[in-house]
Amino acid sequence: MEEILRTNDPVTLSFAQALLSAEEIDSFVLDVHMSVLEGSIGILPRRMMVAREKAFQARAILTDNGIEPSRR
Question: Where is the DUF2007 domain positioned along the sequence (predicted)?
Fold first, then answer.
């Protein structure tokens, strides 16, 4: 798995997941339940992961749709 996006904006994460899902790229969001530890104020970013072989394509899709992906 490779990180392609790190953000604390739930709308951006949802949009990114929808974009990748439409292209049949499976994604997994890490750190979703960290809000319990931070007190639900949204300061800790969540990470979106995809399979390493799909990372290049996923980054291109995000970039084409105005989302700045994480770089290694």
Answer: 1-64
